Every structure is written in C-alpha cells, then in structure tokens.
Amino acid sequence: MPSSAKGPFNGINHVKIESIKKRMWEGSNMGLALEIARILLPVVIVGGIAIFVVMRMKHKYKKGTLGKKESKGTQNFLGSLIPLGMMIGCAVAVLLSMFFPIPLLSTIGLRSGIGLLFGYFAYEIYSKKGEVIGK
C-alpha cells in the first residue's frame, strides 16, 4: 500500500468527514424543516391544550355547572387548582432541565401546558367531590 493511501478514506480524516456531513445536513431543507418543527411543535401542543381548557370552562360557565363549594377556603382552593398545576409544571421543567440536556425554554412551555391540563383535571375531580352547592 502506498504511503499516501491511509485506510478506507484514502487520507481523509474521520473528523473532516463528520464536519462535511454536518455542513451538508445544516444546508439541506430537511434540517430547516426539522428546526422549524422543533420550534413550532411546543407552541401547537400548548395552544391546543389551552384552547381545550378555556372552551371547556366557558361551556361549564354557560351551562351553570362550574364547581361551587360550601366553605370559602375550599372554594378558593378549587379556583386555584389550574394555576397551581401550571406552577408545578414549570417547577418540574426547571428540575428536568437541570438534570437532562433539554432546552429550558421549550421545556417550560410544554410543562406549563401539561400542568394546565392536569390542573383542569384536578379541578374537575375536586369539584365533584364532597358537598356541592346547587345551581
């Protein structure tokens, strides 16, 4: 084997090949489409969750079936379940971003939306428990 031919790549360094592949991927339309999807997907998911929760609460308000509790303390707790879910979602997002290599911004958005959904479900469950004042 001649001295100029070094292995299967004929003298081309493996690092150079990876660099070329990376530049080709970044320059392609597929890389751009994936980047746009990575940016828009959390917005679409959280937007869908928010629209679902708001429309359900609006429907319950018009129908007159929003949860009502007898004591003021339990009514305040019932009213704060949805925001509490969002705050817990944000806290989980920060903790996950500290321990895993996930971008903080998209994680906070997604976890807040998921917390909104869980807060709504907790609101639904808690409003049906115990004594409920009629319409």
Topology:
Blueprint: H1 14-27, H2 29-63, H3 72-79, H4 81-99, H5 104-128
Helix pairs in contact: 2-5, 4-5
Question: What's this, in brief?
Answer:
Helix content is 75%, strand content 0%. It is mostly helical and 135 residues long. α2 (29-63) packs parallel to α5 (104-128) and α4 runs antiparallel to α5 (104-128).
What features would you describe in this structure?
By secondary structure, the protein is mainly α. It has a domain at 46-128. It contains five helices and no strands.
Q: What is the straight-line distance between the termini?
A: 91 Å
General form = elongated
Helix content: over 70%
What's the Cα radius of gyration? 26 Å
The structure class reads: mainly alpha
Order of helices and strands: HHHHH
Pick out its properties.
elongated, mainly alpha, single chain, 5 helices, 135 residues
